[in-house]
């Protein structure tokens, strides 16, 4: 369709204008840029987060498996589009890379994972505030890191803070919860988006704590909350609490979106094995060594953590533990020569157990130097001999029973995959690099030799380098090359695994973070972590949104190890990790404070229990402790409070599905038409290509930001990987939008061709053969809380018929041709009158909406003030009760002395009560003053500055 400069300017303003919160197109620009297939509940959740410009944030509490990350990504993308670039994402440490990948690959947001090393490097480079990089980016950090750098975090004026797995902060109402309270203080006053499937687990106070993180003025203090909502069996109390929560909480249930999202199951496959005699002997000897009271190789500051890691390597393979024991013995010899332990033990085994640094961060282990005394030399020498003997025994064992069991399990698992119609691909997890190499050799000598790819923290093996070089050559000159060798290597390995060549990926814990492998439906836990959240993270690489097949989950069980059997039992029966419906295990995981805490409890049992009876008793106690955490009665309360979907809401979701797709398609069409027009002399466009493909052969003279857009083939979203990914936020598109918006356009005549439009617009059909005038202006309403822009089309026919806004806007989307003929007359003055009427209508809608926002905020603050007064009044009631008791005691006193004592006590209490009453009135006045100040702040946030910018005037002819 032909387009004029005037229409291109209209398209540019339409694509970039800032929309009001209630607009159905609010997220359209983010939708155009996102490379995701959205479900309506995700759009609904993101719009809920923008519901009011006065809101301090929201709690998105969708049931697990419904894509809360996508919802948050939409909100972040929209903030970015509005040029609000101070964005922080706080996540559990093991989810940092996953978030990085989701936001960069699906929303094209620049991201920075900030952790200890880059933070230290930034400081050394003279950067005073590493949390505010010179090149704006979404900053992704772990909870522990943000808490440790709270002062830096506090200094940044964040536009939005996303807190994933926010149930970790649910005990923030407890002063002793240092991490949660540190984050609360550092992030106070910032807009927050909390994500959790389990906002309420063991106590209603947990929900109070999470809400207080978002907005401290939703409820009063803890005492008043506890007093008001102690009994939710009273309908009025329950409804009152629900009403106060609804403006902040949004929750979607799986059953409500069954028509949009399909779920697959997990099919467990347990492969039992018995280690050979020498393997079993090695296990016993290493266990005895680790249980010694004093160990020279493991300083006290590191012992718990390092013991855990060594047990993991021992369970992994003889190759893994042999390497660790040899390395520790060598380091011990070196330290013996230097008379100290200043070298961190992490260096000794961290290369093999890649998750060491992350585990240390989660466990918050400190590593001060330990100086060796002269009297310990003999003990060190003896321990070196013991370690060397253990290492030699481990190195002598070249065949592992679990390795043989893996071949058996793969045959059975692939058989099941064939039955399910799934691809014969397996994702095998190990916690050790040495075990990874052993499995590569083992599988390489079996029928599974073809199509093996390794995935770890460095990916520097010959096979990975070859895959990378081939991938890089294949994608040279496309957007698939990011310029980051690490990111590109990961993409190359995943692409190889996805291809027909790839069959088995052997991944370490550290290497497999942040990759999505929905095309694979077989997960093998060769080594099983004790942290249930890590296990869920592993399975979630394949068993996630977008998986089309049931996922087989393979685990191994050492039948000679009683503790291993009980650990598997707990993970299977209590946490439901291996045979649940899509994501249900996440809901159970939310019940425990932290997977690390569970891991610590397991590690303590392995370390302290020696006899089978001790092991059995310890696991019985642990299971009893978990019973309350996992079977909490609060689940029922959570459902009552937060699960408020009804048939009307479900119908709204069905409508939202159509609206979201329409908004995206309309914006894509406008962007493509603008691009075709602006690049008509610089690119070749593929006729009628639904992908909007074009080949850019020359760059127009525009002030591009670096890097300059490359020449070559471009396609609109949802396209092949070989082309440059064209979108609204692409540097080329941004430059073209600016060029179109900056043009000065004199009045002109445009002929619109209705017959050339692919479709039917009933409102325009009666206007065919007519002509008239059209004035386009941009009306801006700016408040401290938000800015919104409206494109106002004032149009009329020569016969005097006024066109409504929608009809006038549709006229500008028809094929247009600029006529060279001079204008027959000046624009009629009636256009200005029509524009005034349109602007008045917009102002009235804004005023009515802002009045609603104000009423909601005022009601919230009134409730907060009442809560504060309730606390003060309760203290007075307590005094009244004490006075009654003293008076009763005075009446029943039998002696004069007792009566006099009661009278003295009564007078003292009365004096205290009088003082409290005066204090109460003063405090109530202070609460009212604070409420009024807050309401004044709300009024200021809604105070508007209005402006109008005329864009162009045209005379139109419709043929």
How would you describe this structure to a colleague?
There is one protein chain. With 959 residues, this protein is α/β, with parallel strands linked by helices. It has 33 helices and 23 strands. The protein has 5 domains: 114 residues, no CATH class; 211 residues, Tandem AAA-ATPase domain (Rossmann fold, 3-Layer(aba) Sandwich), CATH 3.40.50.10810; 121 residues, no CATH class; 190 residues, Rossmann fold, CATH 3.40.50; 154 residues, no CATH class. Helix 23 links the parallel strand 12 and strand 13. It is flat and about 105 Å long. About 1% of the residues have low confidence.
When the domains are counted, the total is 5
Give me the Rg, rounded.
33 Å
Q: Which strand order does the major sheet show?
A: 3-4-2-5-6-1-7
The span between the termini is 15 Å
Oligomerization state: single chain
- Contiguous low-pLDDT stretches (5 residues minimum) are 339-344
The CATH superfamily name of the largest domain is Tandem AAA-ATPase domain
Which descriptors apply to this entry?
959 residues; 6-stranded parallel β-sheet; single chain; 23 strands; Helicase_ATP-bd; 7-stranded parallel β-sheet; hydrolase; 33 helices
